[in-house]
Design brief:
Length: 308
């Protein structure tokens, strides 16, 4: 059997023809209709046009999308950066157009499902997947299942407040301080070079060459990240935390995260009372750019009873 799997991002809609084993048979992408110049109808039209390429060839459509959504019904409470999706039931709208079964799940939760199904969290009972993208997303795995929360917002780590005196500003929240763009801001602050001239590739090229200012920026970025990872560990006491997102493919990032976690736990003042401080175990996700596709397919198959 074949399925059309779609990963909606703020810039591109990636799509793939996949089988039940999560093998990608072909994939491509199109521009995502943005909020400024497009409407919900433009968005639906873009998804419909992708489906028409595979009409008659697929058993259904599995979608990964941003925002807070009810993956059981398909209702989107918010669409993340795509505000025209807010208040819409995307499953109903697309099934009406395409006449095949449709499922939808939050993108961060899809990444967690991919790791739980075939990746780093496969044999983990309780774990966290942390995705460093435009902001900070991910998912919680509790007792071997994805935990969604009463409002379907569990794993929306971007909303975590990190500056008590800046709660009325974007940079008072974790999504701003440790999204991928934040690393460019740290690099700009240390070097004096405009932020726009940095991307992940350039930053890690310079870091790998030993650029001291870039290494300091990376260390500052990882230090803030380590604090929140430690907080998650204290709250949930999980076996493993997997780091995903494009920049997580850089080995140096994981090295700096682990270093800062070890330093934090070693210097913890409570160690004067007890040596037991829960140091998080951190690794990379297995899947990077394809994680949302794989997780969306898992959600579709699971919802249709394939794993019973």
């Amino acid at each position: 059997m074949k399925y059309l799997v779609i990963d909606v991002g703020g810039t591109f809609i990636k799509y793939a023809l996949m089988n039940e084993n999560a093998d990608i048979l072909e994939k491509n992408k199109v521009q995502t209709p943005n909020n400024k110049n497009h409407t919900l109808e433009d968005y639906l039209g873009a998804l419909d046009s992708i489906f028409r390429r595979y009409d008659g060839l697929v058993e259904g459509i599995a979608i990964s999308a941003p925002g807070v959504l009810d993956s059981d019904t398909g209702y989107c409470y918010s669409g993340g950066a795509l505000s025209y999706v807010s208040g819409q039931n995307m499953v109903e709208l697309l099934e009406l157009r395409c006449k095949v079964p449709v499922t939808i799940e939050n993108d961060g939760k899809c990444a967690a499902l991919a790791e739980m199904w075939k990746g780093s969290q496969k044999h983990v009972k309780n774990g966290i997947v942390l995705v460093l993208g435009t902001a900070v997303g991910g998912g919680l795995i509790i007792n071997g299942e994805l935990y969604k929360g009463i409002h379907f917002s569990a794993g929306e780590f971007s909303y975590v407040a990190v500056e008590d005196d800046r709660v009325d500003e974007a940079d008072g929240y974790w999504g701003h301080t440790n999204g991928a763009a934040a690393l460019a801001r740290y690099a700009s602050k240390e070097t004096g070079i405009p932020q726009e001239e940095f991307d992940g590739v350039r930053i890690f090229e310079l870091a790998d060459k030993g650029d001291e200012k870039i290494l300091k920026a990376l260390d500052n970025y990882a230090k803030r990240l380590a604090v929140q990872i430690y907080n998650l560990q204290v709250i949930l006491d999980v076996e493993l935390i997997s780091i995903g997102g494009g920049i997580s493919q850089q080995p140096l990032l994981l090295e700096f995260i682990r270093k800062n976690l070890e330093e934090l736990c070693e210097r913890h003042p409570f160690r004067q009372l007890s040596r037991f401080i829960p140091t998080p175990v951190v690794t990379n996700c297995r899947f990077f750019n394809d994680s949302n596709l794989i997780g969306a397919l898992y959600h579709f198959l699971n919802k249709k009873g394939a794993f019973k």
